């Protein structure tokens, strides 16, 4: 890993209990705004259901006979009351079910996340806590008191381990908190949150996972693992 700075680790009462290293390649990455915009737009597009549907001329209910005779009325000829110009007729060029997903390379997604996290670090809005509660019982009150000390902003993202039921039960009823497991952290949720709070276990898990991916990428790109293709 590259050079790292440190960040204080707090307990459930907001007191310092230690520190963690912030690897520069993860938390001091450049913030590429156009890249982040592209990734976020793709993520929001993929979340669309795409189930919208209008009925065309052949799908609406109605008679198939001519509304009046072809000639002699002085009016424009009409073939059916289901035509688009009639009330209750079909819709022309209306939306149909479709998939809005965009292809986004994994490296772009990863770079957008690290750029967003680094921006929060530089603004002093990333926090690490040993635990969100004291003891073995969930407590929303303790979490609220902790938020008043370290992150009193309107929107807070809390990153937990998947099996941390105690912390999850403590924060699930707080409307200003959005909870994510460490392996689901993404650029969009980071950007819409004013402060980010990691538990120590979730932070270590996130850093370890990123380090593993970087090591795998480095191994895959070494010359001995690259086959020469000849025509």
UniProtKB/TrEMBL annotation:
Q: Under which name does UniProt file this protein?
A: Large ribosomal subunit protein uL4
Which InterPro entries does the record match to this protein?
Ribosomal_uL4, Ribosomal_uL4-like, Ribosomal_uL4_dom_sf
Outline the segment boundaries, as ranges, of region: Disordered. Answer: 49-97
What task does this protein carry out? Answer: Forms part of the polypeptide exit tunnel.
Quaternary structure per UniProt?
Part of the 50S ribosomal subunit.
Q: Which GO terms describe its cellular component?
A: ribosome
Membership in a protein family: Belongs to the universal ribosomal protein uL4 family.
Alphabetic keyword roster: Ribonucleoprotein, Ribosomal protein, RNA-binding, rRNA-binding
SUPFAM superfamilies reported for this sequence: Ribosomal protein L4
């Amino acid at each position: 890993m590259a050079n790292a700075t440190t960040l204080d680790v707090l307990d459930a009462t907001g007191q310092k209990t230690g520190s963690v290293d912030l690897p520069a390649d993860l938390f001091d990455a450049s913030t590429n705004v156009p890249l982040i915009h592209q990734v976020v737009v793709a993520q929001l597009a993929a979340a669309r259901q795409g189930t919208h549907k209008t009925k065309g001329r052949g799908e609406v209910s109605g008679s198939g006979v001519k509304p009046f005779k072809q000639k002699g009325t002085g009016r424009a000829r009409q073939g059916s009351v289901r035509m688009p110009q009639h009330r209750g007729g079909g819709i022309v060029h209306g939306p149909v079910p479709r998939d809005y997903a965009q292809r986004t390379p994994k490296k772009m997604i990863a770079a957008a996340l690290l750029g967003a996290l680094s921006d929060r670090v530089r603004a002093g809005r990333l926090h690490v806590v040993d635990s969100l509660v004291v003891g073995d019982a969930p407590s929303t009150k303790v979490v609220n008191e902790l938020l008043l000390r370290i992150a009193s902003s309107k929107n807070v993202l809390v990153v937990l381990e998947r099996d941390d039921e105690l912390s999850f039960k403590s924060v699930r009823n707080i409307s200003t908190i959005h909870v994510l497991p460490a392996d689901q952290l993404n650029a969009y949720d980071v950007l819409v949150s004013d402060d980010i709070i990691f538990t120590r276990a979730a932070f270590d898990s996130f850093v370890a996972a990123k380090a593993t991916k970087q090591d795998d990428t480095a191994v895959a790109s070494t010359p001995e693992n690259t086959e020469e293709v000849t025509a």
